Amino acid sequence: MLFAVFGVKEYVILALAVVLVLFALVNIFLFFRKKILQRFALLRYFYPVVRKTAVYYDYYLINKLEIQLVSNESLFIDHMLFGNKYIYV
To answer: Which one of 2, 28, 37, 57 has the fewest beta carbons within 10 angstroms of its own beta carbon?
Structure first.
């Protein structure tokens, strides 16, 4: 029934349009891939670097530190690295 309304030419154009839209979406994702991954998976990429630094230089590492402030607020720090001279947050 569908072939009676549309000819083969319209289906080819429709398939080509769908392929072009999918190709454009994939290219947009690949172009912004690094920024998207950095935004959502930063801690997963950042933690091994901090951990290796702490182990190699024998620094003290605190993960997921939550400090209670005065007015029922809390300060959340993902990593705190205590070095010989500095504290890296």
So the answer is: 2
